[in-house]
Amino acid sequence: MADNEIDDSASARQLPGDSLLAVNGGDPVRKTPWPTYDRGAVCVHPEDEEAALRAIRSHLYFRYDYRPAQETECARFEAELCRYFETRHALATSSGTTALALAIMAAGIEPGSLIACPGFTFAATPSAIILAGCVPFLVEVDENLHLDVADLRSRWTPQVKAIMVVHMRGFAGDMGALTAFADEMGVPVFEDAVPALGAELDGRKLGTFGLAGAFSTQSDKALNSGEGGFLLTDDSALFARATVLSGAYEGRLRRHFPGAEPPIATDLDLPLLSFRMDEIRAALLRAELDRLPDRLAAFHRNYDYVAAALADVAGIHIRRPVAAGAYLGEAFIFLVPHGRAEWFARALCHEGIEARNLGSDADHNIRAFWNWRFLFRGMETAAIKQLLPNATRYLQRAVDIPLSSTLSRADCDQLVAAVRKVAGALASTADLAPTVLDTGEGSAWAGQR
Ligand SMILES: *Cc1c(COP(=O)(O)O)cnc(C)c1O
């Protein structure tokens, strides 16, 4: 039997008729497509549409025009972000990637510096580091897929000039440990808080722990304007430089410092990168921001319901947050025994639940570091995986299911039923042939059973 395959005939024999896996020809748990943003499962209300239409009908699409700044959609959006996140400054941008790059550039990190980032993140994170002229320095993640601070310490070199933490799939990084370590090393922390917009750790919003936090408003994120993003910081000089870099030329920087002098002497020392947001998107986002708390509550409700309903399932390790409730709830990730995740995800897809094995060899998931070939020209995949063996192992075992905030209780029940069904088949196969499970995988895994 091949490593990735379950003895399907054996599991089929073990289970009652209605438990026959869809992947083996049984009835799927769900027959309609799983709701995802790219199928239109998004939260856009009539009020949001109206706001965008008002901006379109105004014919004033550029954020810097004859109007006083405080009458523009972009400036109002930024002011509302400052209130919501309790930060001094916010800058609306063209994307999350550009917000990340602006943070690095505006912090004055020398081009060519190493910037630490985890081996589990969307490829936009290392890409933004490159866009800022720096070099990604990859760090392990632990079994809960959080950046591993102990590994960062053991790999540390003085060429590392900043740490980019990623609250990946909406789960907070361990900001206490990370900021303490960064302080010890004398480098800033940037937060890729893109997947965690609105999520909190210990009562504080993610994206407000580091020197600067970056967010995206691409359609898959908690605020959706198709494309877009923003940067948050309390550092006025960083904010001023980021604003000029984003494209505030000929004194337009002043509009971002009402009633005060900008903290940089001139805007002529920096290039203009045109990473601005436009008025139509800002209008849409301002309207969506009004209902963000409802949306966040829906994410949490769905996630908590699913996680509680699956907590007792043998053979799966549900990703653990660094603190109670420190996640958005936009995705449900769990680990299964080594060599089973690709099959598990495929079986779930057959049951009608969209799932992916993050570290699959069959599809090049751009969230696994070994697929960032742009960092490793000329290297074989096996050699790349050797650079971060733990991240490789955990991603190979990880199953990832998107949880749209539009999910109904019935959708969640189907997800739960499908995971139970597939895990049940896996367990019964394991009972028949215990050697199928890679029990040498480690105590962390054994502790979950
Ligand atoms: C989506 C995403 C980004 C990129 O945001 P864009 O607006 O698409 O540029 C960056 N980092 C993470 C972790 C993301 O999920």
TrEMBL record:
**CC cofactor:** pyridoxal 5'-phosphate
- Asked whether the UniProt record includes Membrane among its keywords, one would answer no
InterPro entries xrefs: DegT/StrS_aminotransferase, PyrdxlP-dep_Trfase, PyrdxlP-dep_Trfase_major, PyrdxlP-dep_Trfase_small
Task: Show the Pfam families listed in the entry.
Answer: DegT_DnrJ_EryC1
- Note the superkingdom of the native organism: Bacteria
Q: Which UniProt keywords apply?
A: Pyridoxal phosphate
- An example of a Gene Ontology BP annotation on this entry? polysaccharide biosynthetic process
What GO molecular function annotation could you give as one example from this UniProt entry?
A: pyridoxal phosphate binding
Keyword set includes Lipid metabolism: no
Q: Which family does it belong to?
A: Belongs to the DegT/DnrJ/EryC1 family.
Q: Which PANTHER family match?
A: DTDP-4-AMINO-4,6-DIDEOXYGALACTOSE TRANSAMINASE (PTHR30244:SF34), TRANSAMINASE (PTHR30244)
Descriptive protein name: dTDP-4-amino-4,6-dideoxygalactose transaminase
Supply the source organism for this entry. Nocardia tenerifensis
